[in-house]
Amino acid sequence: MSSGAAARVGIATPGQRIAAGAAALFRYAVIGFVVAISVLPLVWVVISSLETNAEILSSALNLPAAPSLKGYATAFRFARLDLKFVTSLIVAVSTTTVSLLIYSLAAYALSRFRFRLRTLVFTLLISSILIPVNTMVQPVYEMVLRLGLYDTKAALILVYTGFSMPLCLFVLRSYMMHLPYEMEESAYLEGASVPRTFWQIMLPLTQPALVSSAVLTFLGSWNELLYALLLTSSEHNRTLPLAMRYFMQQFTFDFSAMFAALVIYVVPSIILYVVLQEQIMSGIAAGAINE
Amino acid sequence: MIKPGRLWIVLFLLPALAMFLLVYLGPLATAVTTSFTKWNGMQAPRFIGLDNYLRLAASAKFQAAFGNTIKWVLAAAFIHVPFGVLVALVLFKRPRGWRFTRAVFMIPNVLGWTALSILFMFIYLPDAGILNGLIQSLGFSDFNRNWLYEPGSAFTAVTLIWLFFAAVITLITMSELMAIPESLADSARIDGASPLQIDLYINLPIIWPIVGTGIIIAVTSVLKAFEIIFLTTGGGPGDRTINISVIMVNRLLNSQEYGYANALAVVLLLMGMAAILLVQWLFRLGRGYRDQ
Description:
The complex is a heterodimer of chains A (291) and B (292). With 291 residues, chain A is an all-alpha fold.
């Protein structure tokens, strides 16, 4: 590309051509490195999960002689990953649903309603991004105990919904602010109520931002470990990240099961990413820049 | 803009405000106030002034955690973020495969810290890991290292779990680069500027503020790192990979020293605020060209 630029200007000295060649080489070295560190470890884990223990131990680089799903069977049967999978799914889906509802209402008010404390309320709510969630571990644990929610999925849903606030609010509000006002205006002129206009006109228009917020909230909940560790104790309320930790401590002798467990855990995230790649990227970019 | 009845304003905002009080403001207030008390969750908190803070400042574990955190913050600012920006500058020139590269670079971020930590634990496994396997296949057949548990390599091994996964930085930098009018680079090219010169003297100064934002994102994320330590080394060997969050959680789980744990939380919060203010101040200084 740089040599093309030089040709357009019409002066490509040998020195410039060497420089352009070196630049191209450097570019592909960077690209090769990025692709390698992002993809190869996962490929290796997937391949190893299909090997027997003996094969994994004999060499880290070989291919399975006969791909076996024994590791997956062990992971499901003995670590009850199926149970944890369902728990994680319930928590993540509920968190996402509640978050979208609560924060799209707030985002609508903060982007469309004219009232005196608007800027203050927005600043207050969005300031939550400045608080590292780790710093509230003990008080949140205390609060959950006091609400009688210790060791319930509801506790995790409540806390994760709170944690998704800055991202959802920011993504939804800024999207709504860029939407034209005409359609709502005519709805209001025809006498539609505020909730009805919000539900039937605004929400459908906000769909791309809703999808971005939803998938990032889902992933956040799916991957959370610290609060799940402190707020749950019984088998049927523990989520996948905890199961992964337990697994790594208990099954240290069974490598194919360990590798299979990791694959089981990441498959939903990978599927979501493949399907909703654009929404995830735009959500992350929008959510990141708000600071 | 509409001016709805007060009822609607309240109803639309109430759930979010309640959430803010319950999950942020309330807990934060509890953390700050109880950090000045001795409290085990059973008896009522007893005010002890700055005792917790003095105790933690004097503890060798905290000092190790503080030192590690500073090293990680520097690594985030001077390696992680520049790498992300470099990848953005490369992909922005749209070489073949740039879309694919951008897409796969995001995968480790999508997997989350738990999966990434476990993935690297596998890579570092002494007998079954691919790192030792690769080194052995290069001819060093006796090579065997327990990367996460040997004092000489633990810190580096933990750092490498996140150091180069800078897709978020790349993403925001690229969207900023794409907003630069192409005429700028075109006229520089006609004046004989090389691509490197265009990057260094035109693109980089324009995207400088987003580099500041990237540093804030990376540094705050390093400060709240937990899983990548807790799941891999647990802070060891010795205190070589410990950080403040890990000490805090260990205190909560093992000894119910809630006041002390919350003092650690407050220190973490203050470090985050200080980092944000410092970076903003530094990058405001370099931002002058936009005001001209």
